[in-house]
Structures are given as C-alpha cells and as structure tokens.
Write a structure and sequence with these properties.
- GO terms for molecular function: dioxygenase activity; L-ascorbic acid binding; metal ion binding; oxidoreductase activity, acting on paired donors, with incorporation or reduction of molecular oxygen.
- This is Fe2OG dioxygenase domain-containing protein.
- Helix content is 29%, strand content 19%.
- With 356 residues, it is α+β, with helices and mostly antiparallel strands.
- It has a single domain, classed as B-lactam Antibiotic, Isopenicillin N Synthase, Chain (Jelly Rolls, Sandwich), CATH 2.60.120.
- Helix 4 links the parallel strand 1 and strand 2.
- Helix 4 crosses helix 7 and helix 5 packs across helix 7.
Length: 356
Amino acid sequence: MVIKANTLRVESLANSGIHQIPKEYIRTQEELTTITDIFTDENNQQCPQIPTIDLNDISSSDPKTREKCSFELRKAATEWGVMHLVNHGISSDLINRVKAAGESFFDQPVEEKEKYSNDIDSGNMQGYGSKLANNACGQLEWEDYFFHLVFPEEKRDLTIWPSKPDDYIPATTEYARQLRALVTKILAALSVGLGLEEGRLEKEVGGMEELLLQLKINYYPRCPQPELALGVEAHTDVSALTFILHNMVPGLQLFYNGQWVTAKCVPDSIIMQIGDTIEILSNGRYKSILHRGLVNKEKVRMSWAVFCEPPKEKIILKPLPETVSEEEPPLFPPRTFHQHMEYKLFKKNKEIVDLK
C-alpha cells in the first residue's frame, strides 16, 4: 500500500497499519543521533530536573513571603526558561474538564474533525489541521492539532469551536479566563525581577485588551518508528509565555546545558515556558528555551498549549531601556511581533533576512 504523506492526517496514517513511516517524516541524520526512548528518559534520575515552582504564595499579603516565591520563579526563568507550576490556583476539576473535552473531540472519527479543518493557504489558521512542511528539507511532524484563539473573549470566533462535546466551550472559556489572571501574576513577578513596576511587562506585551491567548491542542498518534520521527521539531516559542497541560504521557524535551532533558510528568502541574517576546524585552535575562516533542509507539500523547502573544504590528519588540547599559548592550534589533515570526521562519530556511 502506497500512502502519500500529505493526503492523510497523521492519525489516519498511524491507524492505517503501516510498519514504516513515509520518508517525509524521517528526520535528518543529525537529529536521529539524539532521538531516544522517551519512557527510558523519563525514568533516568541522573539527568537535570526541570524546576518545580510552588505558586501558593505568589499573591501573599506578606511582602517577604511573596518575594520569596517570586524569586524562585525568576530564578527558574533566568536559568532554565521553563518550569512546572504547582498550586497555581486553577482547580484540578477545571483542568480535567478541559482535557476531557479535547480528548472527546479527538476521539471522534477523522471525518467529523474535518468539518473544522483550517485552510492555511487562504490564511485561516484556526481549526483542525496537520503541520505542513515549512522547513528547507520538507520534513513533516508526527502531529495533528486543533488551534484557535481563546482570549480576549470578544475576539473569539465561536463558529469554529467544536460543538461536541457539550462542555468544550464552557470548560475552555473558563480555563482561558483563569489562565489570563495567572498571566498577570507571572508577568508582575518577572517585571519586578527586572527592576520595573509590576505592571510594566504586561503593558509591553499588549495588556488585557491586546495580548492574545491562542490554544493549540496537539495530538501525537502512536508511531511505528518513533526513533525516526519527531512530534514537534526543535524550536523556541515566539510567544511572551506558553502554558502547557498534557495527558501525563512524556514527550516534551528541553535543550539545557548542551543536552536534551526530558520533562517529567508532575501531577496537577502546568508547564510554563518563557517565549522569545519576554527574552527580547528582558534583553536575554529570561531565557526562551529550545524544545521539541518526541513520540512513541505505545501511547497517544496529547498536550494543550496556550501561547500568550502580543499584537502582530502594534508593538515594537526590543530590549527595554532599563535592561540595557554599556556593559549589557541590546542583544536584539527592534522588530514587530510579525517581523520576528517571519525572521524565525526565514532563518530556519537558511535565508538571509535583514529586518532591522
């Protein structure tokens, strides 16, 4: 049986009974030397551990208690750029509803999901899709997804949100509201760490009106040759912050101190990553970490990533004046968010682009 990779969703490809993946999904030789068994990696206690930050005191009325919590968060943002957040204030019940709704959507037949398919060529990014090749080698990723804006609420397009299951819209809406409140607390702590007023970073990324929260539910089917594929290739996020839930199947890896480190599955946690936007504004003090997603042949992996993105054209991203000095000159040229996204795409394609 001959299967053309671009004519099928990855889920359909995985369920077709193939024992070898199409060549479009096979990674470069350099990448193949680093792909390992994700379950073995997760159990390796010798590897560095991504920090876990307890946010229970992030809003404490006691300044010293609040500062101690904020310091630990900033330390993780500076050294790692990624962390597990626990006691984050979003209930396990709500998180479980969000996961159950996403799982129910992907449990439907592909034909049902296709009713919500996006159209990248016409600029319609929202909806059900599969990652098309956008790199020089034409490689594909072992992933299907559902993508849409979740906040601010007045900017949502509910016509492309799944009507089934019934709880998808209520659960996702409430999760976005509560996550947006958490974003404000995180940005306040990061602002103070730069010697700024608490509300400064939030203002610089668009504030309550302009900062966009985009949800991407990632679906990674079982892969017959996981040692040859990637669910998501290595990249940094362009966002200000990214928040990730998952179905407790390992797969996320971070490139830390010259090696790939597997994120452990920490119950009741939300993974938070610093994105390029905050790295730029902080002049590199907070790190946007390189990461990727591995797949496996035993279990379907799902993750729910919310990307907090500034408006594309209204804000110029550049190191804040307070982060720049003779000893610490600006590390990044001024760009709009849209220009930064284009720069990263072109850079990956090894094209020379000058957006200064």
